[in-house]
Amino acid sequence: MRTPFVANHVSAQMGAIGGMEKTRGGKIKTAAHDKSHRIIKLTILALLGLTILGFLTFNYKNLDFFKAVGDTLENLRVMFFTPHYVNIPGGFRGALDQLLITFCMAVLSTVFGSVVAIFVSLFCAKNLSSPKVSSIIKSFVAFIRAVPTILWVLIFVVSAGLGGVSAVIGLTFHSAGYLIKAYAESIEEMDEGTIEALKACGANFWQIVFQAILPSSISYLVAWTFLRFEINFANAVAVGAAAGSGGIGEALYLAGHQYSDPRELGFITYLIVAVVILLEMVATKVKTKVR
Amino acid sequence: MSHNLSKAARPANQTSVFVKRKRMYTFFFLGVIAIMIASSLIANFDYIVGIKSIPKAITWSLTKFIPNSSSWHWLTDEILKALFETALMSVAVTACSAVFAFAFSLLGTRTTKINPLIGRAVRIIASFFRNIPDVAWVLVLFMAFGQNILTGFFALFFVTFGLLTRTFIETIDEISASCVEALHASGANYMQVVFRGIIPSSAAALISWVLYMIETNIRNATLIGIISGTGIGFWFNWFLKSLNYGAAGLTLITIVVLVIAIEITSTQIRRAIL
Questions:
Q1: What average pLDDT does the segment A163-179 reach?
Q2: Portion 150-189 of B in contact with A at CB < 8 A
Q3: What is the per-residue pLDDT for B11?
Q4: Percent of chain B with pLDDT over 90
Q5: Cα(A117)–Cα(A124) distance, integer angstroms
Q6: What is the longest distance spanned by two Cα atoms in chain A?
Q7: Which of A157, A158, A250, A268 best tests the B interface by mutation, with the highest count of B CBs <10 A?
Q8: Is residue A164 scored above 90 in pLDDT?
């Protein structure tokens, strides 16, 4: 039993001495088969296995798949090529008002989230606070982020009632969790020497924050905040639809589920897409400007 | 004279840097406050109600979300099954869209695109898919697919496909450009460039993005489940609406455990491959 092991070991050593790794067939190995490659392969295999398992175990409920696909294609054609609005109160103007409400929800939750995150991230960044405090905050924040935004909103609907307040507070929770992580990582990337120099000069905590940390990491903070704003706008639409918190999301939900009108769905989708693309363009501008 | 001037000018210049910074901060804060006031008026946001709701919600959820003896049977009957289905759906949808996005992104990168027109078309199509809100996809798919897991599957598929196509194009352009150039120079054909150049050099980064999308999709799948009436989102909403708070709390805990487990796994994988 022991001989093959020894033989393998010897041949591996000889390969190492020769300077070149060889395959079993005697060819020179050209690809690096290190740990990273093996884990990539394992990950892909695991994903493939889970995907197949998923497709085999899903409950399809005797769906007539091809009919559903055909109907959907027809619905998509109607939705995108013949959009109209009839059920939105106030018509086109009313739809724009709803869109503005959703936009403002996103603004409020992003600003609240980033104000909370700025302060908390100072105690969360390893180079500013103690390792104990940092890891306690980090695990607490991981918990906040693990609860999906919509569940935060649904929980706040119970205590604050249905509407803008519960949506904004619910969105704020998840954005704060996200931004604390992002801000803390940006601060941790900062040059250690600057903080040390200020400490040596006798600067206090807030002087270090305002004279070193904010000026040097502001561009990252702005970029992260704007990225979160884009996410929050999409989330405000989704929350309006799933929890009924008002805004354009609720109009979208009503068009789909209450009136089953793909044409109105198309109209509202176009409005939302216009804002999203506008935000994407601004984000690209902001990114090039702050870097 | 000139000596005097420079002496006088220097302190003035030095203070002006700090004054400028202070002024910038002040303007920035005033601007933010103005935007906040306008936004809260438009969105009908009441600060007092909002602040009061936070401790209320925390005490409420800590007292109500306690699983009781009657809620445990829901765990084995429905919650774990739905959670398992939602998790598998998120993995399957991300894996499928990653395959399509990779094939598609090869037509869009600077180094491997077949011609500029197709490259531009790929970017526009990807932008179309990712910018349409997932809720709109769910609602239009629901009309034909109904309360079925495939409604959420296709909605997430379209959005993930659009997002991953863009990130794959950017990642490949960033990482593989130089090695693709080297392969071209040594006379490699298209397939050799893809399999010998792009896949080995950017596989780790692409997998990292796929793992990130799985994390995001589990959360999104919960939301989509509420609208399409499937998976774990449906059950949480149903428990909450039927005042079965014990079971709702149990659902919440299982979701948190799942999301954190996936986050830890993908962080470990990322650390090993990058």
A1: 92
A2: 150, 154
A3: 54
A4: 50
A5: 10
A6: 86
A7: A158
A8: no
Tell which residue, A228, A247, A229, A224, has the closest CA to residue A237: A247
If we measure between CA atoms, which residue out of B48, B262, B161, B143 comes closest to residue A262? Answer: B143
- Residue A137: pLDDT band (50, 70, 90) is very high
pLDDT-derived band of residue A22, with 50, 70 and 90 as boundaries?
low
pLDDT at A191: 80
Nearest CA-CA distance, residue B187 and chain A, Å: 18
Q: Is B72-273 CATH 3.40.190.290?
A: no
Provide the pLDDT confidence category of residue A208 given band limits of 50, 70 and 90.
confident
Closest CA to A118 of A211, A230, A210, A203: A210
Share of chain B above pLDDT 70, in %: 95
Indicate the range of B108-117, B142-151, B225-234 predicted with least confidence. B108-117
Provide the H-helix boundaries in chain A.
Answer: 3-18, 35-57, 65-81, 91-124, 131-146, 149-160, 164-188, 192-200, 205-208, 214-243, 248-253, 262-290
Q: Are B89 and B152 in contact (CB under 8 A)?
A: yes
CATH of A92-290, one of 3.60.20.10, 1.10.3720.10, 3.30.70.1070, 3.30.540.10: 1.10.3720.10
3-class state of residue A191 by DSSP: coil
pTM: 0.86
> Is it the case that residue B173 has pLDDT exceeding 50?
yes
B97, closest residue in chain A (CA to CA): A51
SS3 at position A150: helix
Report whether A47 contacts B95 (CB < 8 A). yes
Cβ–Cβ of A252/B57 closer than 8 Å? no
DSSP per position, chain B: -HHHHHHHHHHHHHHHHHHHHHHHHHHHHHHHHHHHHHHHHHTT--HHHHHHHHHHHHHHHHHH----TTTHHHIIIIIHHHHHHHHHHHHHHHHHHHHHHHHHHHTTSTTT-S-HHHHHHHHHHHHHHHHS-HHHHHHHHHHHH-SSHHHHHHHHHHHHHHHHHHHHHHHHHHHHHHHHHHHHHTT--HHHIIIIIIHHHHHHHHHHHHHHHHHHHHHHHHHHHHHHT-HHHHHHHHHHHTT-HHHHHHHHHHHHHHHHHHHHHHHHHHHHH-
